[in-house]
Amino acid sequence: MKIKMNKSKGIIAFIISLAVLAFAGYVIMFGIGDRGKAEYITQGLDLKGGVSITYQVAEEDRDSLDASALEATRGKLERRIHANFSTEATAYKVGDDRITVEIPGAYDADAVLKELGKPGILYFCTKAESGVTPTKKQLKDKEYIQLKNEKDSQFDGYYKVWLTGDTVSGAEGQATKDDRGQVKNVVNLQFDTKGTKAFGDMTSQNVGQPSYIIYDDSVLSYPNINQAITGGQAEISGGFTLEEAEQLASNIKIGSLDLKLEELSHSVQSAQLGNDALSKSIQAGIIGFIIIILFLLAVYRIPGLAAGFALISYIELMLLALNGFDLTLTLPGIAGIILNIGMAVDANVIIYARIREEIAAGKTVKSAIRIGFKKATSAIVDGNITTLIAALVLLWRGSGTVRGFATTLAIGIFIQLFTSLVVSRGLVWMLYYMGFKKPSLYGKEKVKKTIKFVEKRMVCFAISIAVIVIGLGGIVFNSAKGNGAFDLSIEFKGGTSIQVQFDKDYTIDEFNDTIKPEIVKVLGTNDIQGQKDTSTKGLFTIKTKKLEGEEMDNFKKLLIDKYQAKDNKQNFNDTEISDTISSEMRRDAVLATIFATICMLIYIWLRFKNVHFALAAVIALVHDVLIVVGFYALSRVTVGTTFIACLLTIVGYSINATIVIFDRIRENKEIMKRGDTMIQKIDESITQTLTRSIYTSLTTFIMVFMIFVMGVSSIREFTLPLMVGIVAGAYSSVFITGALWYIMKGKKYDK
Fold first, then answer.
1. Are 496 and 574 in contact (CB under 8 A)?
2. Domains (ranges, CATH) in the chain?
3. Is this model's pTM higher than 0.85 or not?
């Protein structure tokens, strides 16, 4: 890219850039109207809390209640709140006949109740023939339903049920144009095999009659049947707005609930991690960020200054994006932001290392800048695309916190690519034309003695195998002792929910800092979640592992004797709760990760025109994941909702580091001379990128370490495995990947 600029233009452009950064900072700090301000960002249940609503199965359905019907209802209700409120919301079973939903950021419980409504069953019906009165059995078996007390009496009476929402495979609300060119809002439906036949029967037998779509005992739409529809598709039109059409489509996609539910209670809950969790994480992040910028300034000088401003622009754009897209920020979301900061630093390090190499090769500073950005672009783009592939697959197949992590990661990738390749480039050129043209201001890459990494591959492989075996041994040992392979949290295995009323009105931070550690000692588990009911003085909901007999007695004794919990019949109400990470969510996460890995393998294969590069990269990913999984087993760090986000962060970080090395191997392979060996070129490539590998790992580690040191206990449980993963990723990219590729493919070049 040819830059036309002089000193005065460079100064003006730089001042304008600083003004834009300052303005963005002002918007983030103070907002414009009701938009932009950082505090407006919706925070998850872990960081801010939200509303908790408990539903009970309606009395009419309790006779037919079983575990499978309750689980099916829970899953569909969760999908409904994901569609209408937040993908970070959760729904879990309480006891044998209740379901609790927790929605982040929604503090007006009455408003939530009004919008969520009473979950019901979706029916596709026709009006019962005049004079027909269904039997009790027909009503019980839902062959017919009865509507009463409708505002419009035309809907009162009996309806014949042809099919339910369970047979709808897809529904989409959209705006279309009719034959006269007028816009109308419709819902397009697709049915499964069973639904196609049932809908075909209904429409063929009732041409000229209205069909009724009934939900929550209300008629949502009643389109006229103009002809038999047997193709498995239908269109609903009813004079509603586009928003209403999309809402109707959402209701239909969720389908019918197996059970009718009634609202039992609701409350507003505090943040799970405490009110100080986010503020402490921000403070730690700021300190870590300042250290990173000072480090970049010390190492890369003028380019380091440009990198600092580029990183600031990334943070500002990311915060504005979270606000603008109304995304929910959670602890896994913070992981996505950290990963992108690491990748942004990495991109700048790659670029500036290339500039220093060109200066060392005798190029002018101007040429070095131009060539440096050009040579670095492919590695940066390839690394980000592989990570983006993983994020998009997770968006497609993931749910809950996994989907939230993927959303944050995907948006962050586009932002940091922009700041690295556009903002950073522009700033470097501005500074150059402002008069910073001396080579000493940019540095000169020193000639490094080539380190023989590949020759030492067997030692490196042995170290990796030993570490992995020790970790897997921890899994076997824990299982043999009967403690379970991992310390699974209640999100994975369920537990006990206990309501405790204290005489003193403790804050959630006082509970986490003072009471929770004592509970950990008594129960022998770190998996303790406390939530404060903000509407009732001293009332807490404490969730932990299943408690019975002596453990429950010791738990009560501790809180009564030491913390003045009320000792009466109304207190210490305990209920068994189910997992919040359902088997469906776990399956989707595993399938998404496998599919993402396959997609990354294919991309690397096509991009590098060598399947062995792709295989080596994937093996390295498996290597890093196994090390972190082993660490979870050995350390007994609680495996909760952040576990999946942690592994995905490591996968994204590791693949990015590997791509950089493979890009350099590919470059050096193309300029091999007679007498050169492939093993030499691999060693040279790893040595040339070693500084980048060290600097990127170090800066990312610093950011995570600061959050670990300054964060609350729950955040430490998340950041500790992340640090292990960063070290493992750096090790595998430097010591494993190049050697693996040499064994699989590189040897042929030495023959």
1. yes
2. 7-31+274-441 (1.20.1640.10), 47-118 (3.30.70.3400), 123-256 (3.30.1360.200), 454-472+582-750 (1.20.1640.10), 495-577 (3.30.70.3400)
3. no
